[in-house]
What we know:
With 507 residues, this protein is of the alpha/beta class. The chain has helices at residues 4-10, 32-48, 65-77, 90-100, 112-121, 137-144, 179-192, 210-223, 235-241, 252-259, 284-294, 367-373, 413-420, 456-466, 492-499, and strands at 19-23, 28-31, 56-60, 80-83, 104-107, 125-128, 159-165, 173-178, 200-203, 226-229, 247-250, 274-277, 299-304, 308-312, 326-327, 332-336, 350-355, 380-388, 394-399, 404-406, 409-411, 428-436, 440-448, 475-479. The chain has 3 domains: 4-191, Rossmann fold (3-Layer(aba) Sandwich); 233-399, ANL, N-terminal domain (Rossmann fold), CATH 3.40.50; 403-500, 2-Layer Sandwich (GMP Synthetase, Chain A, domain 3).
Amino acid sequence: MANPLYDAVFGLHAGNTRALITDPLSGYTLSYNDFLLLGSATATVISDAGLAPGDRLVAQVGKSVNALAIYAGCVQAGVVYLPLNTAYTPSEVAYFLGDCGASLLVCDPASAASLEPITTKHHAALMTLSADGLRGSFAEAVTAASSSFKTVVREPDDLAALLYTSGTTGRSKGAMLTQQNLLSNAQTLCELWQFTQDDVLLHALPIFHTHGLFVATNVTLLSGASLVLEPSFHLDRAVTLLPHVSAVMGVPTFYTRFLSDERFNRALTESVRIFISGSAPLLAETHTQFEARTGHRILERYGMTETNMITSNPYTGERRAGTVGHPLPGVEVQITDPDSGQPIPDGDIGIIEVRGPNVFKGYWNMPDKTAAELRDTGFFITGDLGQRDNDGYISIVGRNKDLIISGGYNIYPKEIELLLDQQPGVEESAVIGVPHADFGESVVGVLVGQAHNIDTGAIQASLGESLARFKLPRTLVIVDALPRNTMGKVQKNVLRDHYSDSNSPLG
Ligand code: MLC
Ligand code: AMP
């Protein structure tokens, strides 16, 4: 094939008049063919902006059909797509732009003034696209562009996307995802979850992460199904849309929010054949309550930016609460001893490692980090702690990495601690995740110092200048000292236990 990902996911739909995007409430639809034309016009704009195959395009834009077309346009033009969380601040964007050596940034018109100095510094072009996808210099260029674009030839091992994921050192790493990584995973999931052109997926996830961008979008496109493309998860709209869809993909917060709505019951979910959850742990309790209310057993799967999807509960077999199911067909999982790296027997807890066509190529310009996490044998060390039972079901029991997952967003404590340590009056700090009913976990910052020397309000304001709001500690507490073990290492588990029962200041 000339461009395996483009041809399989997008190109095969040329001339297809069925709806790719649909809004059952307003009656709006956009056919596959019209979306392909939009994607090709987008590819023309990208190419006319001077980007050659392999160049990087960074997009920090709201969720819209035109934003999705940037992904399609990049794949068709052979350009590496790098989507960013819309919550990132200019200083966060500056890092990504500089690190990847982007040629073009597409951002919201409202952010253009603050991002322009950054693109100038990094010699990248800047174009704008509004959240509804209709305004801005990029939108205007797409409207005027030719929708005939000759698809650029790509090899399976060529990069399709660069997705940044934070690291334990506080420095984000660009995961290099190839055409083959994305395509093989989408093909496997499409088959496993039995997606067909009759499906209508409620798509309320952001399209700047693996879950909403690759899992939800590629699977739908491959199967010829339709997407109800919601700008974000809005409970009332989602409840209203449920009778019109056959599939839902979400983070656990979607499901706990559904359960909090008294309209959510068996009748409302009759048309849905599959509810899929991932990106964060789904409590067994949520699984059970969900089944009691609707008769549906949520299908939980497990994945990571670097690996796409790794395991899934079965579609037809038993979906076991509290587990993430079996390795996907063609994907190998081994569970290893954290110290020796050797595989351990079923039932024992160790580090989950994964190998297969889904596993990324390495971190952008970080050979040492790549070597530390991707073994010569091809196994990627996830840093998740898990165990496999006698029936082959894998459970995730913890993390061997200092990571907080809040509402499906990853937050790396180190990044916040580095900033907290610089604040007036703060001698040192520790950032932990504590249980949160809505987001699963929320962020607590523990500061060492004297209360009269520390202005927590000023600290929050200072952090807000450089960090996306979802990363900000919801609570800051001041203590005399941090608990340490005999080796001098901060005992975060002790802090988590101490602050676990509340999201309010505990002193
Ligand atoms: C929003 N806020 C959050 C937050 N999302 N705070 C902590 N954690 C989050 N996840 C904050 C905002 O900063 C704001 O704070 C306030 O909450 C309201 O913002 P909002 O935008 O109205 O929030 P809401 O719409 O309720 O969003 C919550 C959410 C959203 C759960 C629907 O976060 C979401 O869609 N999450 C999905 C993330 C995802 O796709 N993850 C996949 C990663 S891929 P303030 O202070 O400004 O008022 C991956 C691999 C895999 O992990 O396996 O899939
Ligand atoms: P990210 O780096 O954003 O791709 O996040 C990947 C991490 O999300 C994994 O390493 C896991 O810790 C977590 N994760 C994804 N799916 C699940 C799941 N079903 N259960 C528990 N954790 C999950």
